[in-house]
Write a structure and sequence with these properties.
By secondary structure, this protein is of the alpha/beta class. It folds into two domains: 130 residues, Oxidized Rhodanese, domain 1; 218 residues, Rossmann fold (3-Layer(aba) Sandwich). The chain has 17 helices and twelve strands. Strands 1-5-4-2-3 form a five-stranded parallel β-sheet. Strands 7-8-6-11-12 form a five-stranded parallel β-sheet, with helices on one face. Helix 3 runs antiparallel to helix 4.
Length: 360
Amino acid sequence: MPDIQVIHDAEPATLAGFNAVIDVRSPGEFAEDHIPGAINLPVLDNNERAQVGTIYVQDSRFRARRVGAALIARNVAGHLDTALADKPAAFRPLLYCWRGGMRSGAMATILSQIGWRTAVLAGGYKTYRRRVTTKLYNEDLPLACVLLGGPTGSGKTELLAHLASRGVQTLDLEAIAAHRGSVFGGFTQRAQPSQKLFESRLLAALDAFDPARPILIEAESSKIGDRMIPPALWKIMAAAPRIDVTAPLAERARYLVRAYADMIADSEALDAALAKLPVQICKETRSAWRALAAQGEFEALAADLLAKHYDSAYDRATRRQRRKLLGAIHLAGLAPSDLSGAADQVGAIAGFLDLAKQVS
C-alpha cells in the first residue's frame, strides 16, 4: 500500500512544509474559494462532477464510482503529463478535496506510487474553512492598527503603496476585495471575489504580519462593494486611531478622474453607478450629473459629486465613529511626488517609519 501522510490542520506553518498545495476539486469549487497559493488540478471538471453525482443519485453508487474512477484516472494522467511533468523525485505535495477525501485520496494514491512523499488534508477544504471562520469570526486578532482617513479622492490607496515601499505594514482592503469602496468602485474588467475567497485572502495577509508592529489600514465602511469586513478585523478597526489626509476639492476631482479611468471609459457602467446613488438625491441633480457625463465633463462631475454627496457623507460618518485623531496632513496637490512626501509625514506621525527601520 502507498504511504500517504494525513495532515490534520491547515496552519500556514504546516502548509509551508510542502512544495505544492494541490486543490483537486472542480474549477467551480476552486473559484468559489481555496487555500491561498493552492493550484487547481481537478480530478473531475465541473461537468464530470455533475455527471457522477447524477449517476450516484439516479442509478447506483457502484456505477458512479466506476465512472468516476475512469474519469479521475484520465484526468490525473493529464496532470502528470503537464502541470506535474517537471517535478523531481523529492517533490512533496499536499492534496485536498471537499471533505470526504475520496477525490484527494484517489490522486494521492497515484502520486505516492510514483514515489513522491504525498500527503492529504484530513477533512479537506472544510478543515481549512473552519480555521478561517474561527480566526475571523470567533477569536480576537492579536493585531493593532492605525487608520488612514480622509475624504474621497485624497489618494489614500496610493499612500498605502508608498508606505509599504518604506517597510510599513499595510493592509489594502480594496485590493483584496477588488473594489474601490463606493458605488463607482467596481472594476469594469474584474469581478469581486466571493465572500469566502475575500476572507481567505484577507486571513493570508493578516497571517503574514508581525503582531508586534502596528498595521496601517485605509478607513473603510464595514462593507467594500458586496464584501463584508469580518467581525474580528472590524473590531480592531472600529477602535483604531486615525490619521487624516486632505486636499483641495479641485485636486481631488482631478485625481478621481485619473483613478477611475476604467469607469469613465465605460459609459454604461458609469450610468449604472449614478443610478445606484442614494434615493434622497433629487432627480434634477442626478440629471445634471448624467449631462456632465454625456458631455465628457468628468472633472466637473467628480467635483459636484464630492461637494453634494461624498464630502457630507464622509463628515457624517466621521462624527459617528469618533475615532481618536493622531494628526492631519493637508496636501496642496495629489501628484505622485505629493503623495510620496505625505507618506513620510504619515509614517512620522505614527512612528511607523522608525519601527520599520528597527526591524529592517
